[in-house]
Amino acid sequence: MTTDLSRSWRRAAQRTVGRRRLLRDGALLGAGLAGAAFVGCAPSKSTTPQGQTPQAGSGATGATGESRPGAPVVKGTIKKGGTWTESATATSSTQDMHTTNTSFWQTTGELLMQADPYTGAVTPNIIEKWEFPDPTHLVLHVRKGVKLHNLPPWNGRDFDADDVVFNLERTVGMTAEKEGIPKAAFLHSDFFAGLDKVEAVDKYTARITLARPSSAFLYAFVDHRMTMMPKGVVEAGFKEPVKLAGMSPYQLTEFVPGVREVYTAFKEHWRGQPNIDKWVRTVVADRGADLAGFISKQFSTFAAGTEQDLKTVLSARSDALHYKSLGISWHHIRPNLKHGAFSDFRVRKAMQLAINYQEIGDGYYGPGWGYLSGLHSYFPESWSEEKVKTLPGYNPATKAKDREDAAKMMTAAGHDKGDGVAFELLTSPGWSFSDATKENALRFQSQMQQIWPNMKMTIRTSADVGSFAKAQADRNFQAVSYAIGSSRDVGSDAFAQYHTKGVRNYGSFSNPEADAMIEKALATLDANERKQIFQGSGGFMEKFSNEWMPMIMLNLYPTNTLIQPNIQGYEQVVGPWSAGRISNLRGTLGFVS
Amino acid sequence: MATATVSQQIEYNRSAGAVSKRLRSASRFVRRQPLGTFGMLVIIVLVTVAALANVIAPFDPLAQAQRSALQAPGAEHFAGTDQFGRDVFSRLIYGARVSLYVGIGAVFFAVIPATIVGILSAYFGGWFEYLVQRLVDAVQAIPGLILLIVIMSVLGVSLPNIVIALALPASISESRIMRSATVSIASSDYVDAARALGAHDIRIMFRHILPNIMSTIIIVASLGFGRFILAESTLSFLGYGIAPPAPSWGGMLAAEGRAYMFAAPWLLWAPAVALSLVVFGANMFGDALRDELDPRLRGSR
Questions:
Q1: Do residues B224 and B174 make contact, with C-beta atoms less than 8 angstroms apart?
Q2: Domain that holds residue B275
Q3: What would the pLDDT profile of A538-572 be if each residue is shown by its tens digit?
Q4: Which residue in chain A has the smallest CA separation from B64?
């Protein structure tokens, strides 16, 4: 059974909610939920996790009248115990959360705050409450009783304000000189842009001083790359992950590089012991092995990358629970604006007009993908999918005329039939979404050459993932076909992708007007005013589409998660806030009898 | 006039005899080597298909038609269509060009240098032979696939570079085979006699040694042909092959076949069968040639 949540989410996303009110209400809601979850997860209580409504029907999810869309649903009674098994492309190769995107800490660490996956509101987690005494100060209150895993030298002590200070200071690279690591190595320093000082007021209170007011600052805490490590990990070194203590419901107990990671339930977790005892992540060779592993019940879950994969699994395992939603990431073609004809807006715009988005989206994913332009369409400040779908280029009904206009525009730019437009389109190797980026490249190439036969486009796949990342980071490419995930806040995302100083502005787009708009949005605390900067007449979204077009977004891609039918309590999430919100880590998943 | 008629008759008889002799040899080859004959036919078919690809292929191998995507083999599309709606049979036919190009190109650039180095090494001996053979040892100590990937990473992905990447290590390794074949001939009496008559080294190598190791060269080339086609497929499968959307059998296996092996298994079958058949055919043909041309094996038949 399939539940498509995009419609319900859109309704939620289109509501106008003041940011301050959102934060305040979010805090209250989060505190309430956390408290309820705390009670619900207590071992002496019912085995049905809090917030879950038992519902008839295999894989049924969604609104039940009482719970919000996507809330975990349980059919049957969850019992304690069992092993959750899943595939991985590799074991975690590095363990330093601040200088890499390691999956290890995303499993064994926890976030200071969580984003509600349906409103984007920031809700408590390790930080149980916070306040802004003034626009440039933020006081964080650390929850008491958040135990670290019982490993020396931490020995199960409480996570405290000193740990918060350590994480924030190190994330922005304040310790770079002392550690002898280049400041540029701290990959996530942009998340806390504007952080001036962080100090521990007492054991459970930390105080942050900002250089300037920031409407995006709080959202950095909910990014899945911001999971916490305890103070002392640098001294302990990052070489032996089983010796590193986190604070999540699961502790790494076995690590075989390149083979598997085994996590065991942490009984002292502040939300109570999770339902499932073990979580095993096994490395598999490719998508076929992953698929076969799910069909044969060796894996508890399978992320179907394509419509064909989905059909294959469901034809063999019609009892599998199927959850479908649009997530954080979007496919795109990113031209390097310093390369040849790409410096001309008309060339980029002509390509955007000429693309058959439906063919690209349906071709790989089948139905269920989403439209976007410029920024993730689930941000309240961005253009919605419905709006994007009516725009020239995206609108299937006007495709023929849009292509005529595209041809004229390209001719006006001096490239009749694509003469003089030559570039290499780079893709990343690997499986999962990488197959989609390659197929997108081939469809894009075919579509462009139908209109501009003299356009010279070659497709190349990088030798390895590292080479691709380096080519992007060094801006040493002509164009890429890739997928990327949004930040949790529209201002942060716009800064990263389109500001002259943005770390993910790989295409070297630089426009003073865009920079000014983004900076203004980041400094504006009023939600409506902020929305105007993006959506208003002559605002960021319009300029992006009609004057800038630094990147061509192809689609928001759907995630199809399949789970074995005897495992219930999956929490369905959508949009930019979906990443890192793993049901297992929230203790909602469990085997039913 | 009469003289001319007689000499013409002699010439005619001689050429007729030669044709007849060749026909008999061919007939003997077919009779003695049925698998080798099959292999030869496969190679002939491959060459024909590659040469006439634009005539034989029913569709443009690059033309996408999303509405026809992933159609099973049928009357319109003999080998089905891929996820882009491209005709698999047409891609298979055009893919034969890549295989042939790589097979012939790599054989050419591997066997010629290997022969030259092998003959020089065996003929001159001494420090030159020592250096060459240590180089061969060094190259053979590196795992073949790793070496290929390193070369491709350095050179970049293109069809000529694939040929170079395959031919370079092969030319070094195969020079040892050529050297072995040369060693016994270089010390034979007729070579000594030629040297005593004042023949230059180059003349000895070209006129007396080269023709006598020709059977070895042919065998190495025919066996290498299949091996290089397979290696190209391996490179394509690993992403170091010919750039998409150009069709190659290895690329079809990797990009289309693997991704859709459950939903559309014909994407895997078509290139896999073609590849297996050609490599099998080339190997059988090479084995048969060795049996026919190597005098040491004649008695063992």
A1: yes
A2: 28-57+77-298
A3: 999 999 999 999 999 999 988 889 999 999 998 87
A4: A446
